[in-house]
Specification:
By secondary structure, the protein is mainly alpha-helical. 68% of the residues lie in helices and 5% in strands. The protein is built from four helices and two strands. The longest helix has 17 residues. The protein is globular. The mean pLDDT is 88.
Length: 78
């Protein structure tokens, strides 16, 4: 599962319409669908920060890899 900035205005509006019709999911819901368990607030915040940085640089983000990386790092420090 990847996330990226909309390519153009049309794609941006389609995304906004999908959200307005209840088809959007929270970051926590996406993480839970990847891992099968409810994420901690720290995990949600780490993924949110990574998505924000990627949005600034225009990069696409593989959310599953980010979640795996965050979980591995948290396991090391636990």
């Amino acid at each position: 599962m990847t996330a990226r900035r909309p390519k153009d205005d049309e794609e941006h509006w389609r995304a906004l319409m999908a959200l307005a019709h209840g088809r959007g999911r929270s970051i926590a819901e996406v993480i839970e669908s990847i891992t099968g368990e409810a994420p901690s607030e720290e995990t949600v915040e780490a993924v949110r920060n990574h998505l924000s940085m990627a949005q600034e640089t225009g990069e696409a983000v593989d959310i599953a890899k980010v979640v795996q990386s965050v979980n591995a790092l948290q396991s090391k420090w636990a």
